[in-house]
Amino acid sequence: MGYNYHNGLNALLRLAQEECDALKADLADLRAAQKAAKQSLDNMGAALDEMGRFRQQKLKGMLSTFAQAEAEASEKLRAVRDEMEKLSGLVDQDEAGILPIMPIKRTA
C-alpha cells in the first residue's frame, strides 16, 4: 500500500506542478497583455493630447482672425458714424440757412 500511495502522491505532485507551470505561463501572458494595453492607452492619450493642442491652436487662430475682423468693422463703423455726423451738421446748417454755397465743379 505504501508504494501505490507514494506513486499516487508523486502523480498528484506532478499534476500540481504542471498546473502551477500553466498558471505561471498564463500570468506571464496576462502581464504582457496588460503592458500592451497600457502602452496602447498611453499612445491614445498622447494622440488625444496632440489633437487637443491642434484644436486649441486652430481656435486661437480663428479667435485672432475674428478679433481682427471685429476691429476692422469697428473702425469702418466709426468712419461711417463720423461721416453721418458731418452730414447731419450740414443738414442742420442747411435748415438754419447758414450752409455756405459751394460752386459745383463739372467734369467732362
Q: Beta-strand percentage? A: under 5%
Order of helices and strands: H
Structural class of the helix and strand makeup?
mainly alpha
Helix content: over 70%
Major beta sheet summary: none
Give the CA-CA distance, first to last residue.
136 Å
Cα-atom radius of gyration? 44 Å
Q: Given the structure, what is the number of helices? A: 1
Give the overall form. rod-shaped
Mean pLDDT: 87
- Count of individual beta strands: 0
Task: Provide the low-confidence segments as ranges.
Answer: none
Jot down its keywords.
mainly alpha; 108 residues; 1 helix
Task: Describe the 3D structure.
There is one protein chain. The protein is mostly helical. It contains 1 helix and no strands. The longest helix has 95 residues. The protein is rod-shaped, with a radius of gyration of 44 Å. The model has no long low-confidence stretch (mean pLDDT 87).
How are the secondary structure elements laid out?
Elements: H1 2-96
Question: What's this, in brief?
Answer:
With 108 residues, the chain is mainly alpha-helical. It has one helix at 2-96. It is 88% helix and 0% strand.
